[in-house]
Amino acid sequence: MNLKIIKNSKPKEKPDFSDAKKLGFGKIFSDHMFVMDYLKNKGWHNARIVPYGKFEIEPSISVLHYGQSAWEGLKAYKTDDNNILLFRPEKNFERLNNSMNRLEIPKIDENFCLEALKKLILIDKEWVPNFPQTSLYIRPIAISTDTEIRLKSSENYKFLIICSPSGNYNDLAPNKIIVEEKYVRAAPGGTGFAKTPGNYAATLTSQKIANEKGYSQVLWLEAIERKYIEEVGSMNIFFKISGEIITPALNGSILPGITRMSVIEILKDWEIPVSERKISIEEIYKAYKNETLEECFGSGTAAVITSVGELSWQDKKIIVNENKIGSLTKKLYDEITGIQYGKIKDKFNWTMNIS
Ligand code: COI
């Protein structure tokens, strides 16, 4: 497939990248985007990099009604010597195809799309911020575009990649999280492992209630017994109990995070015991009570490594490490961001230099 390039003749003025907090997350977009179309008898075609902008849709477009869509999140990082690095991007395109497959969206050519992404970033390289805690957040997304309201798999799709210079997603200070008992995010056999809009829409009521109570996010339990911990929605979750790191095992309703996978690989390399298994909220509470709960943190592309200082469960409060960032949490944050920003040796060969 050819890649057509139409440059933006009216590039926007860039914002001040120096203040990660002011920059925010996912609020502004670079000058270009990648687009390609799918037609039943033609497959994916008309790949192009064009000026970032609006496109017209009919009110009947399938994705608005049935949410047939899947997306990804990855970042481009600028190093001190002005190189641009991607972090395990092939894993994002692989996971995107897995999500798309669950949503009945035809697969994309992962290598072609990664090459197109590299070209897009190089065209918009001035949009990759180079200040602490900033990066270019990249959002590939596939949407169904049939204009028929009958419930069926669409015959037409669009695939887009848009880019947003961004700061932190979460507060760096330890986050306060509520364990959700009333609602569930995903159930066995559902779409929990996929990055698809419905999974995120289902979390918004709980998120609102949590925010109103002064908590930043929600910790989800599984749908059947409501005992075992799953994930936070914007990040996977890890606990350190008596020196061992535990994260819920992937079970089909948890997102298979790429940062999660990297944390596990780093811990193994450091010879720190790490296990992926079922872990109940009761077990966490008991560990808190007998003072063996040492740390808790989330992992994600947007979240990076986010420290958790408090879990609210029923009428109980679980305070972790006196509400301070744990030493292993900080060490993992430094290691992962060190690799991502090219500050430390990438012995795992995870980064891809695209400059
Ligand atoms: C990401 O880390 O890219 C995510 O998918 C989280 C999203 C809610 C921003």
In short:
Helix content is 24%, strand content 28%. The protein is an alpha+beta fold.
Which oligomeric form is depicted? Answer: single chain
Which structural category do the helix and sheet elements fall into? alpha+beta
Pattern of helices and strands: EHEEHEEEHHEEEHHEEEHEHEEEHE
Count of β-strands: 17
Assign a percent range to the helix content: 10-25%
Strand content: 25-35%
N-end to C-end Cα span: 23 Å
- How many DSSP H or I helices? 9
CATH topology of the largest domain: D-amino Acid Aminotransferase, Chain A, domain 2
Which CATH top level class of the largest domain fits?
Alpha Beta
Largest sheet: 9 strands, mixed
What's the rounded overall pLDDT mean? 97
Per the principal axes of the C-alpha atoms, what is the gross shape? globular
Task: Please name the defining characteristics of this protein.
355 residues, alpha+beta, D-amino Acid Aminotransferase, Chain A, domain 1, D-amino Acid Aminotransferase, Chain A, domain 2, 2 domains, 9 helices, 17 strands, binds 2-OXO-4-methylpentanoic acid
